[in-house]
Amino acid sequence: MNDEIISLAKQFRFNVLKNGDFAVGGELSNEDFLLELLRSEARFRDEKATAERLKQAQFPSFKGFDDFDTEFQKGVTRKQLQTLEKLDWLDALFNLILIGPPGTGKTHIALAIGNKAAREGFKVSFISMDNLIHVLKTAEISRKSQTRINWIKKCDLLIIDELGFLPVSRVEANKFFSLISELYEKTSVIITSNKGFDGWAELLGDAVLATALLDRLTHRCQILNLTGDSYRLVHRKNVF
Ligand code: ADP
Ligand code: MG
Which of 98, 108, 190, 192 to mutate to test the pocket of ligand 1 (most atoms within 8 A of CB)? Predict the structure, then answer.
């Protein structure tokens, strides 16, 4: 390809041209050629942005809606999963709280939603409660934590996994509350927890704070109670 085209493509950050490998087959009118070129650049940018959102989300693994067995887990119906998958509730700034014992699919559902959302253009952040507390506590002294918090505050969906495994101190509970207050009515939040709401008050060590937190979180919220045995235990795999 002509050197000047390549140089101009670089100047204008026109990705599909700057490598000199854009080609269309057949005879095209000027208009059709331009259309193909712009479509190709739009596709390239879309794919790059999606890959970047998936990276920023920091999902620990991939889980899909289709792999979720609603025969095994009776706490959620296929129809409810389909409604969650449509993501309209994210546009309406709803929250989702998934409560249930270990292995009942809470993280699975949260990851399936997160993945779909990131692919559809939502900015998503997945973080365990322990790590979130760590990041909140170290934001002032660690650039990495600061960057994470900044991203979380820009997100459309924050997924907080495993609230309730470790107790939190009063200072930590306050920092967590401040973050949730700041995100209130701006960002959808998904929380997975092995504890019911009574357990949250105990965990946060402050009933007033827990009530204020739940007030914000549950104002526009869907709560799913997952039940039954651990999928991990029932589908345990052995080496022998
Ligand atoms: P939790 O977060 O509730 O502890 P997970 O979502 O991590 O549980 O589930 C544990 C494992 O079992 C994961 O690998 C998950 O994909 C799988 N799993 C759990 N429930 C189901 C289900 N109903 N259908 C298919 N896989 C499931
Ligand atoms: Mg989990």
Answer: 108
Q: Any idea which residue has 């399936």 for tokens?
A: 112
Q: Please report, for residues 126, 189, 212, 227, the alpha-carbon distance to residue 222 in angstroms, rounded to integers and kept in the order given.
A: 19, 11, 18, 16
Q: Report whether residue 193 contacts ligand 1, using a CB cutoff of 6 Å.
A: no
Pull the structure tokens for residue 125: 């952040």
What pTM value is reported for the model?
A: 0.93
The token duo for 170 is 């009063």
Beta-strand (E) ranges in 77-187?
A: 95-99, 124-128, 157-163
- Report the alpha-carbon distance of residue 153 to residue 94 in Å, rounded: 16
Cα of 102 to ligand 1 centre, how many Å? Answer: 9
pLDDT digits (tens, 9 = 90+) for 70-95: 999 999 999 999 999 999 999 999 99
Name the DSSP letter for residue 95.
E
